[in-house]
Structures are given as structure tokens and as C-alpha cells.
Amino acid sequence: MKTKSNISVSEPPSKKQRRNWNEGLLEAFENPDLKVFEDNEVVAIKDMYPKAMFHYLICSKENIPSVKFIKVEHLSLLKHMHEVAESIGKKYEGVEFITGYHSVPSMVRLHLHVISTDFDSPHLKTKKHWNSFNTDFFISDSELIKELEENENLSLKSESEFVSLLKKDLKCHKCEYNPKHMPDLKYHLKTHVKN
Ligand code: AMP
Ligand code: ZN
User: Fold this and answer.
1) pLDDT tens digits, residue range 76-87?
2) Which of 15, 56, 101, 174 has the most CB atoms lying inside 10 A of its own CB?
3) How far is the CA of 178 from the centre of ligand 2 (A)?
4) How far does residue 48's CA lie from ligand 1's centre (Å)?
5) Which atom of ligand 1 is the closest one to the Cα of 55?
6) How far, in whole angstroms, is CA 59 from its chain's centroid?
7) Span from the CA of 49 to the centroid of ligand 1 (angstroms)
8) 101 Cα nearest atom in ligand 1
9) Active-site residue set
């Protein structure tokens, strides 16, 4: 018997196999192991490679590729995505979450990260991973909503400016400590865990 992962070279690729790697979130929409919520506007999934103890993605059903394509007419969708994120976060009493978008995402389809601030995960491996959540590369969705409400458009930095933030020296998000490297950061993060 053939399993799903048993890809035969003699068969034409299925719709799933034809999808590009950066469309993986669209596949996750159909995966009951990852999907935690769905309504007319969004699908909420577990991040397949969580960078903290709790990490979800609230994805828009409307085909908006990324934050760069957000317009004032998306304001109610963004607010709805925020509400869904909050409702997921509330399930974990006492756990602190941040919510926001990667300014230059790797995966298509607008997705709001909902991530706990422990950053305790074996998938958090690189400086790029850390800086993508702990510098201005990570755009707070509340601030985005506020800016759209006030100015009716977004003034984002250039893509190269955002990407350069990923190279910043490591800095702890809870104190002034500057870790020398990722193992140092990961060891240091344990000091902020409440017992
Ligand atoms: P980004 O595009 O940088 O905002 O982040 C994309 C997120 O999607 C990352 O946190 C990945 O761990 C996650 N991811 C990548 N592939 C999948 C997948 N197939 N299903 C669910 N999450 C994924
Ligand atoms: Zn610290």
C-alpha cells in the first residue's frame, strides 16, 4: 500500500506536490493536525516549526501575499486577525504572547504570528530566527492597525532595510544582556523563566 509520503516517480505530481515550498501554509489549511480554527476570513494553524513553546499563525483567506500589500480596506480583516490571535492567547493563562507580521516573510499568504515570549524551542536555531521576532523586522499588528487608522496607508521601510535588521547583534528581549552567540542566548533565556 502506498502512503502519502511515498512519492512515486512514475506518477504525475499531485496538486499538493506541485505547490512551491513557499506555499506550504496553504497546504496546512487542509491539515487537521495543524488547523486550530477557521471562519469565513481566516484559518489559524499551529506553526509547523514553532520558535517558542506556543506559536500559531493566523492566515487570511483573501489572497494577500504579505504585509506589503496591505491597504486601508483590509483594516477590518486585520482587526479580526488580531481578535482571533487574542482568543488563542487567552487559552494559555499566564503566558505572554506577542502578535505581529514578518516584514519580509518567506511564506506567501498574509499570516499573523502569535508567539509566546519564552522562545523556548529546538527550532529556534539562528540569529536570523531570533532577530525576526525581536527587532523591528517584526511588525506589531496593533501598531500596523493604528497607523492605518490614523494615516490610511502604511509607511514601511525598504525591504533591504528590514533584511539588514536580521544581522543585528543578539540582544535579550527581557534585559540588556548581549549574548555572544545563539547557545549563549538560549542558556540566558532560561534565567527569565518563571518557576
Ligand atoms: P514567515 O514567512 O517568515 O513569516 O514565517 C513563516 C512561518 O511558517 C515560519 O514560522 C515557519 O516555521 C512556518 N512554516 C513553514 N512551513 C510551514 C508549513 N508547511 N506549515 C505550517 N507552518 C509552516
Ligand atoms: Zn535577559
Assistant:
1) 999 999 999 999
2) 56
3) 8
4) 6
5) 10
6) 9
7) 7
8) 4
9) 111
Name which residue sits closest to atom 16 of ligand 1, judged by CA: 24
Does the predicted TM-score (pTM) go above 0.70?
Answer: yes
Q: Can you tell me which residue has the cell 545563539?
A: 182
Give me the residues paired with residue 114 across strands: 56, 99
User: Three-state SS string across the chain, please?
Assistant: CCCCCCCCCCCCCCHHHHCCHHHHHHHHCCCCCCEEEECCCEEEEECCCCCCCCEEEEEECCCCCCHHHCCHHHHHHHHHHHHHHHHHHCCCCCCCEEEEEECCCCCCCCEEEEEECCCCCCCCCCHHHHHHHHCCCEEEHHHHHHHHHHHCCCCCCCHHHHHHHCCCCCCCCCCCCCCCCHHHHHHHHHHHCCC
